[in-house]
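Bench log. Compound arrived from synthesis this morning; before running ITC I wanted a structural hypothesis for how S-adenosylmethionine sits in the protein. Inputs:
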Amino acid sequence: MQQLFPGEIFANTADFDTSIRQMLPRYDEMLEVITRCLPSTSRRILELGCGTGELSLKILNRCPDAQVIALDYSPRMLQFAQGKITACGYQQRWTGIETDFGHWANNPETLNIGTEFDGCVSSLAIHHLKDEMKLKLFERIRQSLAQGGCFWNADPILPESPALAEVYKAAREEWAVQQGTNLTEVRSKVGVTTTYGYSSQDRLATLEAHLQMLSKVGFETVAVPWKYYGLSVFGGWVF
Ligand SMILES: C[S@@+](CC[C@H](N)C(=O)[O-])C[C@H]1O[C@@H](n2cnc3c(N)ncnc32)[C@H](O)[C@@H]1O
């Protein structure tokens, strides 16, 4: 059986877009929030862990002048994303790059993508890094943003208490049932993942810890524009 990189989740990449919507409550709404938090006049957007390109597509639809540079270490995910971007006619405005964003955080000079991004976004990817690397990545992101630029990340968060962990778990199970399936059925499509590069299995941090990391590296304003049980969109601006 093929071993997947952390974050690819499903054994068959073609299952991702349907199965992630069954596995996680309000996936589309979560990505929409990120997209809405970017100025529609944005020109340069960096996406970390683009997967099958769902967030990229929403950004390209909403920001007509945006060029998106999308990093992902999985050739399977990038190939799938490229097919969808091309089918939508956005190939001139989207560049997929096969690389580990942890490596970029530590060695920015090895990736020729420049700085001065109007926005940096990510969804369901950064939680695979150790907290120490999350901090380094947030610092690299801050240094890569133009003045007034913003960063928005959607990720699962560490439940604030054992009781809330149960509440969040039940909400996910109920969501899957509302989608006409259940989590056991969806999880039967999950592949075997091993540690790869800077990422490994989920390494969740609390929302509070994420916000503190962002403040520590110099985001002057931090915010949480969306939270639904154990999923959150958080980020901030540099001025
Ligand atoms: C769960 S998927 C989410 C994809 C997409 N952002 C979305 O919301 O649909 C996580 C993606 O992050 C990528 N990823 C995880 N760790 C990474 C790393 N260290 N460097 C680059 N890509 C990474 C995986 O390959 C995968 O495509």
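What the model suggests: DSSP finds nine helices and nine strands in the chain. The two ends are 48 Å apart (CA to CA).
ITC booked for Thursday regardless.
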